[in-house]
Design goal:
The structure holds three protein chains of three kinds. Chain A is an alpha/beta fold. Chain A contains 18 helices and 34 strands. In chain A, the strands form twelve sheets. Chain A has a five-stranded parallel beta sheet. A five-stranded parallel beta sheet of chain A has the order 20-27-21-22-23. The chains are: A alpha/beta, B alpha/beta, C alpha/beta. Chains in contact: A-B, A-C.
Chain lengths: ~675, ~150, ~290
């Protein structure tokens, strides 16, 4: 006989402000099967939990329903309470009375009635609950880090230093990401490569880290603790075990006119190339799309000249399979380029550049050796205009959010220019100045007060070329909305930070959520910023949203700590919400007819074909389906497909769902 | 005569629409209270006969909602649900059921506003259609009565 | 299928040549738009400066009577009239209260959903597809297409795909053999109705447009708006004084250029009605090889 306890939480005033909680508890007490019902201010607090435990023991309850916030918040909490009180933790259901009732409806009888309906529904469900026991699965203590920028590097070092194996995959030929392209970083004006490259080397040499560059994720399957990942190692055309990084090949390469990605198109590179001098690994790769050998079958100079015979034109892409227990996604960001702005020349004016291009100009290892020069004629500009918020915070351009880093790097760019050319004039057109980090505002003030960068509050409506100059048409809103025209030698656009162009595809491969801008979604915006809704997959860095280096490093370490938590025991318990095919006594054995439709539709290949044989003769009696509880994720697709209802989902069984529907609509059951 | 308040049951998936509805709650977005959610792990789990059971037991409208195609937490559950719906809807049309009373939607965990909007839209639509009375006529009491009459004749 | 024609006041007076050339080109391609009976003023800038309701009701009247007269599409060549009619349509179709208010003012019921065609949309839909059959001349001209503001803003009523750097006029004129140049002032303001109240401002703004067109290599400017035409053409003497340059670059309506390429004689296109001589454009015609 069911003896159900119902506990309605006030949640302070969050629920009780619009729902009459006492009335709900009273209505619950009258339901068949409910032995005890009460309400309390803070059910999840210590005294609240103690109250539930005592009630379970005193009234010998066989199951509980807690009317509270969303099960996504506290289902785990209350299940532990049930466990402590001595009843199976799966005999506890949560009625969502806050996010889906009290917070979204006004105080009224209808709202209280809705709360009563929902509690009644879950009472029916819990009466049909059977005890379930967590499934234990081993944890593979290897982590996969997707992305070799500063976020990936930090997370990898943290996990590797804790003694676990780490595999990093990076799609470009070298790790380092965008941070390796920067000249100096704010607010310290540290040389970016100087602080990054030691870490890159540490990653390459760490005994616990395996680095695969020029590699991409091909497919991911499995679940937390037991991911099965296929990685495509793209053909470098260079045998890394033989190559010494001497550089003879790219010095001899005749294809010299390929736009250099690392220098953001401001200079050219050869077809066989290393992305930058401090690349890790410092070994080249052949860009087959632009190599004469691969296009026409001629040349072959690199191979002929290589002293160690490391060039291999026959090399193919290779797929390797790895088993990992956790994945950290650190795939970083992209920026919009100047061709996004028709009003600023649509990418046609060579002296209108974006932030990353300016970084390359300012960088000592860049195409101009660190001198700020105009891309069109190499002259040093006398006047530079910097435009902040280019594309960001602009609904008309489809990017309503703030890109966070531009106010700071614009100030930095202006300062770097002024340091290199003190008599030059630097103008910054801004909307607001967002400098909220530690020492950030002081940094911007330094640009304005010490380096005499001219800040103009207003936007730029158009840029056009006149003779050799760029005419910048803007407005100074603080000076009585005065239109202002500046004849600049160069314009730098602080363009919007956007998600990586392959982000959507990767998210779909990993089954993680993403928003409309293709930034990956965190599990909870405030309380769980480094996890995703998919257990075992963490987020680090700008792939989640635009952020600067300090925040990226913090988030990477946080993601690493989540992974270390996962790896802290050899076994992991999995939720027993799995499908089961019914079994009964011979001669029936099971109602399953072996049509195996469930096997076809299972996304996890968790269903197998089972042969039921006579124990003595070995004759085949019947073919049936069988669920591998270790693989089943509990989606229930098989259950809906089963033609004669022989397979059911524990925790969401056919009987339970039917009784929920009927109870919700207030029919006696 | 008080205004008709429809009873609408929503069959939603835990990962997307349920989370989206929670988000609407976190944002304190207000919407009509006629829709009550039953949580499923995935829309692929939903046996569509449950929809009929809902109508049979007094529901005036039904919403089925899950993750956007390609975003299913279990990869393909929502594709199966979609195909199921397409066939089921033709069957319902064929037997003369007003398929407008069932709304099939995709709402992600980030779309709290869309949830509220769909709830309000569906509530308005069902309100203007009036109460659903068809399947209620088919109940055991009536059948028993007809049977008894037939027996005694 | 009848297309309603709404000339508006400018096309009946100061920009008569626009109407003349548009109807000539349309007729050449076998299309005779029918003038809407009893059409009235759209309100232009004057109405929306004075009274919000008046600003919607005046153009809405045209939408209502056009619907009543059985038109499914109406051609509105003047950019200002187009903007006002599109604005009225937007208000009436997105706000039921406004719709009812306007219907009560007009004492007419209407849906407001009639399709409003700007001259560019009309040319793209009806003339461009058949242009090859009628174009007999190539124009040896470097042309700068000037869109002005009303066709490009606001976003809700603009039908241009790239509002900061549109290409619709260029695609219509491609078939004339003219070279369409790339320039930066396509949608910059010409000074609009300040032409009358503050001519100096128009001289300055329109002057910049003319300067940039010439600096970008244009030999003529093409427009699709009577206001733009007036400011760039009629106000040339004031412009010349302002910019201190004697620039004589002619300004033509897009329909006039199309007409020339279709072999329609210059006087039938109103090319003698301009303040700045269009002779150079006319003489740039070269008969197409068969």
């Amino acid at each position: 006989m069911a003896r159900i306890g119902v506990f309605i939480c006030h949640c302070g005033e969050n629920i009780s402000a619009t729902v009459n909680v006492t009335q709900v508890a009273e209505a619950a007490s009258k339901l068949p099967g409910v032995t005890y019902a009460t309400d309390y201010k803070y059910m999840c607090s210590d005294p609240g939990q103690t109250m539930i435990i005592e009630a379970i023991k005193e009234h010998k309850l066989t199951g509980i329903v807690v009317g509270s916030c969303s099960p996504r918040m506290h289902e785990a909490t209350f299940r532990k309470v049930a466990e402590k009180a001595g009843i199976n933790s799966y005999l506890c259901e949560i009625a969502n009375l806050r996010e889906q009732v009290s917070w979204v409806h006004p105080k009224s009888d209808a709202t209280t009635q809705k709360a009563i309906d929902i509690v009644r529904t879950l009472v029916q469900k819990v009466k049909q609950d059977s005890p379930l026991y967590p499934i234990k699965v081993p944890v593979t203590k290897t982590a996969l880090i997707i992305g070799g920028g500063i976020a990936g590097i930090q997370a990898a070092l943290d996990i590797a230093n804790a003694g676990h194996q780490v595999i990093i995959i990076e799609k470009s030929p070298s790790i380092g990401g965008h941070m390796s392209q920067l000249s100096e970083t704010f607010p310290t004006l540290d040389c970016s490569q100087c602080i990054l490259t030691p870490r890159m080397v540490e990653v390459a040499q760490h005994p616990n880290i395996t680095l695969h560059t020029f590699a991409e994720v091909e497919s991911i399957s499995g679940f937390v603790g037991n991911f099965d990942v296929n990685i495509k190692l793209k053909a470098r055309s260079v045998d890394l075990s033989k190559c010494t990084g001497c550089g003879t090949c790219w010095q001899k390469c005749p294809s010299k006119k390929i736009p250099d990605e690392f220098n953001e198109g401001l200079s050219d590179r050869t077809a066989i190339y290393t992305p930058f001098p401090q690349a890790v690994p410092n070994k080249p790769v052949i860009d087959r799309a632009n190599c004469i050998w691969f296009l026409k079958g001629k040349c072959g100079l690199c191979k002929k000249n290589c002293p160690t015979g490391a060039i291999d034109y026959e090399m193919q892409d290779e797929i390797i399979n790895i088993k990992v227990g956790a994945i950290v996604t650190a795939t970083g960001f992209d920026i919009k380029h100047t061709d996004f702005f028709p009003e600023y020349g649509y990418g046609q004016y060579r002296n209108v550049i974006d932030g990353l291009q300016f970084e390359r100009l300012a960088s000592a290892s860049g195409p101009t050796g660190g001198e700020i020069r105009r891309p069109s004629d190499g002259k040093i500009p006398e006047k530079i205009v910097f435009i902040a918020c280019a594309g960001s915070r602009d609904k008309a351009k489809g990017i309503e959010y703030c890109s966070k880093i531009c106010c700071m790097y614009t100030a930095k760019h202006a300062m770097l220019y002024k340091h290199k050319k003190p008599e030059g004039k630097a103008y910054v057109f801004y909307m607001d100045i967002r400098a909220a980090g530690k020492n950030y505002d002081e940094f911007v003030r330094r640009a304005i007060e010490k380096d005499e960068v001219l800040y103009i509050r207003g936007r730029v409506s158009r840029i056009y070329e006149k003779n050799d100059k760029l005419i910048v048409k803007g407005i100074d809103t603080l000076l009585n909305a005065q239109p202002i025209e500046i004849e600049a030698d160069m314009v730098v656009l602080a363009t919007a930070v956007v998600a990586n162009k392959d982000a959507e595809l990767l998210a779909q491969k990993m089954h993680i959520s993403y928003d409309k801008h293709h930034f990956f979604s965190e599990a909870h915006p405030k309380l769980r910023p480094v996890e995703t809704n998919t257990a075992g997959i963490m987020l680090a860095g700008a792939c989640q949203t635009a952020k600067d280096i300090p925040d990226t490093v913090s988030q990477a370490s946080a993601a690493a700590s989540k992974v270390l938590g996962l790896f802290s025991s050899d076994e992991m318990t999995r939720e027993p919400i799995v499908a089961v095919v019914n079994r009964m006594a011979p001669p029936q054995f099971t109602t399953c007819t072996g049509c195996l439709l469930c096997m076809e539709v299972c996304p996890y290949n968790a269903i197998e074909r089972e042969e039921i044989r006579d124990r003595r003769t070995g004759d085949l009696i019947k073919v049936a389906a069988k669920v591998n509880a270790g693989l089943c994720q509990g989606c229930g697709t098989c259950v809906a497909f089963c033609r004669n209802k022989s397979i059911d989902l524990q925790g969401f069984s056919n009987q339970q769902m039917l009784s929920e529907v009927i109870a919700l609509l207030n029919q006696p059951f | 005569m008080s205004e008709f308040e429809p009873k609408i049951v929503a069959f939603v998936c835990n990962w997307c629409t349920y989370a989206g509805a929670d988000l609407a709650g976190t944002n304190r977005t207000k919407y009509a209270s006629n829709v009550k959610i039953i949580r499923f792990p995935c829309t692929g789990r939903i046996d569509f006969m449950l929809l009929m059971k809902a109508f049979e037991n007094g529901a005036d409208g039904v919403i089925v909602s899950g993750c956007h195609p390609n975003d299913c937490h279990y990869t393909s559950g929502n594709f199966h649900a979609r195909r199921r719906w397409i066939i089921f809807r033709s069957l319902l049309d064929f037997i003369g059921f007003d398929t407008d009373r069932i709304t099939f939607s995709w709402i992600s965990a980030a779309e709290g506003n869309k949830w509220a909007q769909i709830v309000d839209e569906v509530t308005e639509k069902i309100k203007s259609k009036g109460p659903f009375t068809d399947l209620k006529k088919l109940n055991c009491t009536l059948l028993k009565q007809l049977y008894d009459e037939a027996i005694t004749k | 299928m009848k297309i309603g024609y709404y000339p508006g006041c400018s096309l009946e007076s100061s920009s008569k040549e626009y109407s003349k050339s548009l109807l000539a080109v349309a007729e050449k391609c076998g299309i005779i738009p029918e003038e809407i009976k009893g059409w009235s003023c759209c309100g232009a800038s004057a109405a929306h400066n004075l009274n919000h309701d008046l600003a919607i009701v005046l153009p809405a009247r045209t939408l209502a009577i056009a619907e009543e007269q059985g038109f499914t599409e109406i051609l509105v060549p003047c950019a200002a009239c187009y903007r006002r009619l599109a604005a009225a349509q937007y208000e009436v179709t997105t706000n039921e209260e406004t719709h009812k208010k306007v219907e009560s003012y007009l004492e007419l019921k209407f849906s407001g959903k009639i399709k409003i065609l700007s001259v560019i949309e009309f040319l793209q839909k009806y003339i461009s597809p058949v242009a090859d059959q009628y174009i007999v001349n190539n124009l040896n001209q470097k042309i700068a297409c000037y869109y002005g503001c009303l066709l490009a803003r606001p976003k809700e009523t603009s039908t241009l795909k790239r509002t900061e750097d549109p290409l619709e006029m260029e695609s219509v004129l491609e078939k004339t053999g003219a070279k369409l140049i790339n320039w930066a002032f396509k949608t910059e303001c010409c000074g609009a109705s300040l032409s009358v109240s503050s001519t100096a401002i128009v001289a300055k703004l329109s002057g910049k447009i003319i300067e940039n067109a010439v600096a970008s290599g244009a030999e003529s400017i093409v427009v699709a708006c009577p206001m733009c035409h007036m400011n760039l053409d009629m106000r040339r003497p004031e412009i010349k004084k302002q910019i201190k340059k004697d620039l004589d670059i002619p300004v033509l309506f897009i329909t006039q250029v199309l007409g020339l390429s279709m072999g329609i004689p210059a006087d039938k296109l109103g090319l003698n009605n301009h303040f700045v001589s269009t002779k150079k454009v006319i003489s740039s015609i070269v008969k197409k090889e068969a």
